[in-house]
């Protein structure tokens, strides 16, 4: 117990200045935002700042990089950079202390933090795939908020607020497409049934219908059919939704997700397969370099398979994220390294000057601390 408390104190002292509180003033909306209620949008962007970040219109070449990809490109042939545990960017030691009364004593904040840039910041950096993990709020069990395992990431921002943030981005950048993975992460403060119903209601609402592509199959789709849309990777069941849905909702990844595996596959639709790498806790001899090498090898192996379609002509998903908390190799250390290079630098090198140079069709690549290695996102897109 003393060791955990000391780790908390060290993390707090070493932490940079917390970026909260965020500006709570509602952002100005343009009159052309006609697909949703403007008041609802304003409320969502203000309330959701703890996860979305502060809204401003996206500017820069990475805001619309998909405009340079041909309409005829198959969705399964895209190269899409993403973020693992997208919403954890603001989970600093001070955030953890703020919610200590809700979570009690848990692991130190560096174990849960996987990003440093807000969702709007990630979008501006070129990220197009997102890993959202939700659960009922400890302060109001009728609200769905964001978690990483037992860690409460923010009690103000709701799931629907982040979806409105995505809608806003797509309105301003209609050439882009977003891939959003959604998982019910924590039901300590509510029920799985409530979480299912809330997710389903939000994702089939009148606002969502203009942006969320409910397709359950993507093998025959071209990029043109999903521009300005969100493709769902559904990692939550709808078996407790009432009334029961008469049609599917997104790509079905509810069953078969292997735990801590370097290579597995899921039949997410009839005759459609996803080939996945999600080795989040690499087994290696003691030391950062050994764990980085094992993790990096698993990731680049799946990316190479995606480019060459060696396992089949399906959807490839690679998670370059991971940790080994028992050895104090938290996500930031595995991704960024500590004295020695981490996974992100190794992946960038592999893509730009190594065996992965020139490869296309890389699939979805989810990263920890995605915006912290200059050139990595561009290397995935290339």
TrEMBL record:
The keyword Cell membrane does not apply. It comes from Kwoniella heveanensis BCC8398. It comes from the Eukaryota. Coiled coil: none annotated. The lineage of its organism: Eukaryota, Fungi, Dikarya, Basidiomycota, Agaricomycotina. SUPFAM superfamilies: PLC-like phosphodiesterases. PROSITE patterns: PIPLC_X_DOMAIN. Residues 1-19 form the signal peptide. This is Phosphatidylinositol-specific phospholipase C X domain-containing protein. One of its GO terms (biological process) is lipid metabolic process. Keywords: Signal.
């Amino acid at each position: 117990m003393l060791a955990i408390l000391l780790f908390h104190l060290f993390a707090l002292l070493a932490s940079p200045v917390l970026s909260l509180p965020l500006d709570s003033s509602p952002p100005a909306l343009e009159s052309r935002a006609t697909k949703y209620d403007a008041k609802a949008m304003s409320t969502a962007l203000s309330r959701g700042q703890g996860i979305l970040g502060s809204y401003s219109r996206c500017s820069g070449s990475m805001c619309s990089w998909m405009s340079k990809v041909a309409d005829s490109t198959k969705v399964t042939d895209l190269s899409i950079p993403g973020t693992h545990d997208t919403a954890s960017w603001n989970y600093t030691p001070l955030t953890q202390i703020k919610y200590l009364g809700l979570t009690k004593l848990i692991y130190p904040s560096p174990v849960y933090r996987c990003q440093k840039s807000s969702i709007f910041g990630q979008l501006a950096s070129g990220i197009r795939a997102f890993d959202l993990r939700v659960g009922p709020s400890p302060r109001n069990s009728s609200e769905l908020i964001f978690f990483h395992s037992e860690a409460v990431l923010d009690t103000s921002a709701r799931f629907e607020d982040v979806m409105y943030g995505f809608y806003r981005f797509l309105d301003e950048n209609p050439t882009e497409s977003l891939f959003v993975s959604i998982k019910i992460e924590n039901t300590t403060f509510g029920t799985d049934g409530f979480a299912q119903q809330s997710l389903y209601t939000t994702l089939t609402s009148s606002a969502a219908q203009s942006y969320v592509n409910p397709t359950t199959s993507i093998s025959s789709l071209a990029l043109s059919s999903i521009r300005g849309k969100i493709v769902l990777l559904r990692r939550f069941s709808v078996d407790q939704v009432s009334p029961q849905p008469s049609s599917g909702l997104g790509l079905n990844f509810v069953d078969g997700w292997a735990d801590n595996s370097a290579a597995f596959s899921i039949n997410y639709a009839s005759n459609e397969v996803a080939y996945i790498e999600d080795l989040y806790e690499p087994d290696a001899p003691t030391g950062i370099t050994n764990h980085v090498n094992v993790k990096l090898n698993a990731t680049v192996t799946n990316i190479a398979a995606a480019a060459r379609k060696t396992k089949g002509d399906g959807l490839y998903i690679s998670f370059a994220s991971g940790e080994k908390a028992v050895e104090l190799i938290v996500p930031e250390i595995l991704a960024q390294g500590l004295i020695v290079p981490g996974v992100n630098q190794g992946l960038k090198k592999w893509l730009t000057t190594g065996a992965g140079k020139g490869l296309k069709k890389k699939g979805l690549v989810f990263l920890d601390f995605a915006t912290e290695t200059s050139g990595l996102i561009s290397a995935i897109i290339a």
